[in-house]
Amino acid sequence: MPRIPLPRTRSAKLTALAAVVVVLAAAAVVWTNSEPAPSAVRTQDTTLDLPETPGSSEIVKIDTTTYLPEQTPAPAVLLAHGFGGDKNSVTTEARELAEKGFVVLTWSARGFGRSTGKIALNDPDREVADAKKLIDGLAARPEVLKENGDPKVAVSGASYGGALSLLLAGTDKRVDAIAPVITYNDLAQGLFPNAAAPAAPNATTPAAGAFTADGVFKKSWAGIFFSAGSGAAQSGSPANDAPEAGDETSESGAAQGTGAAGAAAQSLPLGGQNGQRPPSGPADPCGRFTADVCQAYTELATTGKASQKTVDLLRRVSPASVTDQITVPTLLVQGESDTLFGLDQSDATARQITAAGGKVRTIWYTGGHDGGKPGQKLRAQIADFLKFSLTGQGTDPGTGFSYDIQGTLRANGAPSVRTVTAPAYPGATGDATERRQFTLAGPAQPVVR
């Protein structure tokens, strides 16, 4: 039977369709071949049995994950999570560090995730003692780089985790470097600050706080944290990256941090606190807090005032109690958009560690508890700092100071950013910060109608 010739138009369409299929197939090959190689990072999950307090026969279980880089032995980083989170909260940061050649150990602090025990707010005999045991474990691992049997180890973390890094560095000489992020110096001042003072505060640094007693209680923030520690699906940590310099075309910073003033707390997985099984019996009004912490919160929430006992408890778990013992290289990262722990907290820590003989580099970035967590570029700076501090590789970060200035809004609603740098944190060594006065002129303007 003779073939019926196809019309030229249909034949041309079929030819074009075949060509498109070939092109798409080729594109699929190119796409497949351009896929990034699978990460060589390996993970190991372990549950540790640690004493409730040093010398105690009571045991708490600490849930950990170790991230192992492709090449070992390698320097180690203890990476602590923020309040209301758990070890899974820092998975992205842990993998990034492991891909850069670090052994990274993450864990769920007492009372969070699948770890047992009560939340004691980084008590020296509880959470800090747990972290010392984690260093013991790193020291025993062949994958961890050592010098004369001493592990090369740094500690980093944000907020609650940042305070842990400072407290550990001040009490364990095996810590070689720290990089605390958006954290506090004095938790009492962080939760009920008072900037009023009979005399001007230290004027040598750009963000010195008065740190006067009898401040105003940050009820909203404290409520978020108490709810998170009681098993509610809330967290006070920022969930999104803050905008960064050079990110004008990216989505970085389009959504901001948590914020206590009117912003809802970040949602956590259902079914219990960060994967923790919900309690089967009646709810404990103190949640997973120790009795002392619960009593202190009850007092503050009821009266708005802190007794001396509460102040003493908060100062016991504050980095200010040990900063005079910290001499290791320190990178302080603090947020400019933070109604919880302001720049004055970082300022105090920078001055105290410098006075103790430590080498301090300071970064103020656009984020914070209200403005977002460190973006990818800032996280890379933190990794570079840790690598130089632990191995001597890379550029010496020195004692420089950098801060971000936000400009006009980008198309995605986030501000453009530029970064200003200085060779050192102003006033940390005693030289007064340069201050300029400007006279404002113009007609009177009504402030309140």
Automatic annotation (TrEMBL):
<comment type="similarity">
    <text>Belongs to the AB hydrolase superfamily.</text>
</comment>
<dbReference type="InterPro" id="IPR000383">
    <property type="entry name" value="Xaa-Pro-like_dom"/>
</dbReference>
<dbReference type="Pfam" id="PF02129">
    <property type="entry name" value="Peptidase_S15"/>
</dbReference>
<dbReference type="InterPro" id="IPR050261">
    <property type="entry name" value="FrsA_esterase"/>
</dbReference>
<protein>
    <recommendedName>
        <fullName>Xaa-Pro dipeptidyl-peptidase-like domain-containing protein</fullName>
    </recommendedName>
</protein>
<feature type="domain" description="Xaa-Pro dipeptidyl-peptidase-like">
    <location>
        <begin position="60"/>
        <end position="341"/>
    </location>
</feature>
<feature type="region of interest" description="Disordered">
    <location>
        <begin position="230"/>
        <end position="287"/>
    </location>
</feature>
<dbReference type="GO" id="GO:0016787">
    <property type="term" value="F:hydrolase activity"/>
</dbReference>
<feature type="compositionally biased region" description="Low complexity">
    <location>
        <begin position="253"/>
        <end position="266"/>
    </location>
</feature>
<dbReference type="InterPro" id="IPR029058">
    <property type="entry name" value="AB_hydrolase_fold"/>
</dbReference>
